[in-house]
Design brief:
Oligomer: single chain
Pfam families: LolA_3 (PF19574)
CATH architecture: Clam
Structural class: alpha+beta
Distance between the termini: 34 Å
CATH class: Mainly Beta
Number of domains: 1
CATH superfamily: Lipoprotein localisation LolA/LolB/LppX
Keywords: Lipoprotein, Protein transport, Signal, Transport
Organism: Shewanella holmiensis
Subunit structure: Monomer.
InterPro entries: LolA/LolB/LppX (IPR029046), OM_lipoprot_carrier_LolA-like (IPR004564)
Length: 288
Amino acid sequence: MNKPKRVVRWINKLIVIMQCGLIAVFLLLLITQFTPSQAADMTYAQTEQKPKDVLLTPPADLASVFDSPASEQDLQQLANQVSLTHENTQGLFEQTRHLAVLKRPLSSHGTFAFNPNLGMVWHQQAPFVTTMVMHKQQLTTIDGNGNISHSTAKNAQSANPLMQQIPLLMQHLLSGDLMALQDDFSMFYLASDANSTELWTLGLLAKDPRLQQALGKLIIQGQQQINRIVMLNQASAQQADRLDITDIQFNQVNHLPLNVENAAWFDMVNVTPAPPTTTEKTSPVTTQ
């Protein structure tokens, strides 16, 4: 295989990885929103502050949460801290992907925005520009040249369990009831002392084998807000003792009105009719 084809293959592989990360982030942000009072405090006083002296656990070590099944009391306690609202959530992300087959990690960063009614924007700024917008059952990808492609869960006949099952999961998540997630996920929980600088940890393990294979072990960490999402996947059948690790950290999270760029992404996608087929490419658009 010549070099240009290898480059294209790796770019396509990176896009698929980011799509999986996007869907995981979308799922988890839905269940980890501030209460209205917490969001108000954050909006005016702490939009650019990180948690003080938080010691981040190495990603692979976070798997210990799966030794602590969550009780109904645990989930209720967490649900009292984080509830669904109709606020905007936007900020910066830093994503590091450790693949067992590569010596060096893959790093990316950019911005994100989330609104329960509009969907989610995941705008990667480096190492190359790409934007993904999830609205209802449609995932729209815009590359750095403005080319648009659509993927729909409704018409997805390929073996992508994420896109096939996402609508059903959304129904549970939009209820704002963490208990409902137990139908689709085995849940695990480690609490932190309210006065400590440690993060609480929630582990999700999909019960559906296909979804579990795609998502791996999902781990969410936070204090007053979500700080981190980690995905642990078995590298391959031949490397059962090695993990592929995705580590996403969030900074400068705020609940202010959507900025101009994020509002433009939502407007563009929401007025775009759903394509007749599962995947369709349209003409380029101007991106910022």
